[in-house]
Amino acid sequence: VSRPPDQPFKDKPVAIMGASASLFGTVRAQMHLRQVFVYLDAKLLQRPEIIVPDASHKFDAEGHLTDAATRDLLRTWLVAFEQWIRRLTP
Q1: Which of 16, 47, 57, 78 is deepest in the core (most CB within 10 A)?
Q2: How far apart are CA 46 and CA 35, in angstroms?
Q3: What does the alpha-carbon distance between residue 17 and residue 25 come to, in Å, rounded to a whole number?
Q4: Hey, where are the domains in the chain?
Q5: What parts of the chain have a pLDDT lower than 70?
Q6: Cis peptide upstream of residue 5 (ω within 30 degrees of 0)
Q7: Architecture of the 1-69 domain
Q8: What is the C-alpha to C-alpha distance for residues 58 and 35, in angstroms, rounded to an integer?
Q9: pTM across the whole model
Q10: In whole angstroms, what separates CA 17 from the centre of its chain?
Q11: Is the Cα torsion angle 73, 75, 77, 80 positive or negative in sign?
């Protein structure tokens, strides 16, 4: 992905989110992905960040999000990402 002549991520709007069973969520992974996307010339949404720690207690057995605060944050994040895409897409 990083070496083809036509860069697939160049100037594309991207965003990062993650969920983890740990209390730190996906903080380290997201920090690393931010560096990768800079190298790929992607247009990364900076805020809001969405890191879902302790995810095993925020989803039910079928994988449905049950935590209201996380659901609200996700809704805010999705609106921001949609606006980011519209801003960057001609």
Answers
A1: 16
A2: 12
A3: 10
A4: 1-69
A5: 1-4
A6: no
A7: 3-Layer(aba) Sandwich (3.40)
A8: 28
A9: 0.82
A10: 3
A11: negative
